[in-house]
Amino acid sequence: MLLRLLLLAPLLLVLVVFALANPQPLHVAFWPFEATFDAPASLALLGTLGIGMLLGALMLWFATFGLRHRARRAERARDMLDAELKRLKFRSPSAALPPPE
User: Fold this and answer.
1) pLDDT tens digits for range 56-101
2) Closest Cα partner for 26 from 36, 34, 18?
3) Would residue 98 count as lying in a domain?
4) Would 88 be classed as within a structural domain?
5) Domain of residue 71, residue span
6) How far apart are CA 22 and CA 85, in angstroms?
7) Phi and psi of 99, rounded to 5°?
8) For residues 5 and 101, which has the higher predicted lDDT (pLDDT)?
9) Crossing angle of helices 2-21/41-63, nearest 10°?
C-alpha cells in the first residue's frame, strides 16, 4: 500500500499542477451533434486522455478474449490429462518404475 502511494504521489502532483496551470475556459463542441459545453482546458484535456485510455483498454480486452478462452480450454485439457495419468499410475504402479538393466 505504501509503495503504491509512493508511486502515485508524483503522478497526482503533476496532474494537480497541470490543472492549476490551465484554468482557461475551453469551448468544446461535438461535430456531428449539437452538443457543446465550456470547461477548463485541463479538465477537457485530461478527460480526453482518460476516455482514450478506457477505449484502448476495452479494445485490448476484446482482442485478447479469444486467447483467454483458448488458455482456459488448454488448462481444462491439461487437468483431464493429469487426472488420467494419476489414474493410470495408481492402477499399474509397476509402469511408473524404470526398466531394469
Assistant:
1) 999 999 999 999 999 999 999 999 999 999 998 888 766 556 666 6
2) 36
3) no
4) yes
5) 61-92
6) 66
7) -65, 145
8) 5
9) 130
